[in-house]
Amino acid sequence: MPLPPLAMSESKAAMMARLGLSGTTGEQMYRLLLDEASKGRDRLSYDPQNLTTYSQSQNPPTPYKWDELQETKRHSEILKIAQAAGPYTRQYYQMGRYIRGHEEENWVAQWFLWHCFRYRDNRPRASAPAGGPVYQVKPAQYWDPVYGVYRRAQ
């Protein structure tokens, strides 16, 4: 049964509550969903065919950011993530599937994909304890929230 959409800007806690995820099993399921979205993010981030016309003219470095990608390419990837869902995550994508006019949508896949981009693009994760050193992230790396590490850009 589809659930009402959750705004992309909502927190992890709000998403987990909406999907009924809690405890260790809920965290594991959240990680699986995030992992599937991370693979979608990587597919979008390294193919120049996904860039907007303006972004193509600017020749941005990979990995590409959310705002540099065509909306139709992001939408196609959202549907691809949901359609290729594993046996454990499929039910959660079904909760986010709905039809608007003639278009299929999936707010669960969209939320996870957007959060993968958000944390990689906008969150350097260079935070340190108060007064501690702040480490700079090399431009050739990006934060991967699925694995909690910096990854080298391809």
UniProtKB/TrEMBL annotation:
It comes from the Eukaryota. Residues 44-63 are annotated as: Disordered. Residues 47-59 have a biased composition (Polar residues). This is Uncharacterized protein.
